[in-house]
Design brief:
The structure is a single chain. By secondary structure, the protein is an alpha/beta fold. The chain has one domain: 3-Layer(aba) Sandwich (Rossmann fold), CATH 3.40.50.620. The protein is about 35% helix and about 10% strand. It contains 7 helices and 5 strands; from the N terminus they run E-H-E-H-E-H-E-H-H-E-H-H. Strand 1, helix 1 and strand 2 form a beta-alpha-beta unit. Helix 1 crosses helix 6.
Length: about 230
């Protein structure tokens, strides 16, 4: 089995991506990042997901993005609720975390080099998302080019591939794919304001997108709400 690194946040999208990588025959090393987010219950969920879906290892790396702030997820800024600041309302919402995906992919790239892995998986999505610039296909393509310029594997080895299998899937399609692969969505946490137990608020943009995905897929929502 070839090694691969998958970014696993504890949310539903990254759980499905991990399952996809496993189905493709990779020995998946799951990587989570404690970046100073207000809610850390998603990291507990990431550990559950990694174990349940057969990751061969799970590592959590600490990066203090709260020290620079600039996001409702890492700073003293209210998380928008009930559609305020949601996708399609114009502008990038305050839940965008500056440079988060760039930093996370860079950490995954470093671990991939150590493991001799040529494949990195991430759950970014350009359909049902909140308008984040680092969730677009152009970003993933640019990062893959960077990875192949900046690493020994890119210069001397087989090269680095960045996989974003959910990029063009709606949340309903992600739900159906996850169920096909045996993902237990009740173990995942997507909410921007989840409590210590991982109970969701039901009102933030992440909760609204998640709930709509289950509804559109015709599947009962297993999310625990506060």
């Amino acid at each position: 089995m070839k090694n691969a690194v998958a970014l696993v946040s504890g949310g539903m999208d990254s759980a499905v991506v991990l399952a996809i990588a496993r189905e493709q025959g990779f020995a998946v090393h799951a990587l989570s990042v404690r970046y100073g987010q207000r809610h850390t219950s998603e990291l507990d969920a990431a550990d559950r997901v990694a174990r349940a879906l057969g990751a061969v290892a799970h590592k959590t790396v600490d990066v203090d993005l709260r020290s620079i702030g600039g996001s409702a997820l890492t700073d003293d800024i209210d998380v928008p609720v009930d559609g305020a600041g949601a996708a399609g309302t114009g502008g990038i919402p305050v839940t965008y975390v500056p440079a988060r995906n760039t930093i996370m992919l860079s950490l995954a790239l470093g671990w991939a080099e150590v493991l001799g892995a040529a494949d990195i998986f991430c759950g970014v999505n350009a359909v049902d998302y909140s308008g984040y610039p680092d969730c677009r296909p152009e970003f993933v393509e640019a990062f893959e080019r960077l990875a192949n310029l900046a690493t020994r594997a890119g210069v001397e080895g087989a090269g680095i591939r960045v996989h974003a299998p959910l990029m063009r899937m709606g949340k309903d399609a992600i739900v159906r794919e996850g169920l096909r692969l045996g993902v237990d969505f009740s173990q995942t946490v997507s909410c921007y304001s989840a409590n210590e137990r991982g109970d969701a608020c039901g009102a933030c943009d992440a909760c609204r997108l998640r709930a709509a995905g289950f509804a559109d897929a015709g599947v009962a929502d297993p999310t625990r709400y506060a």
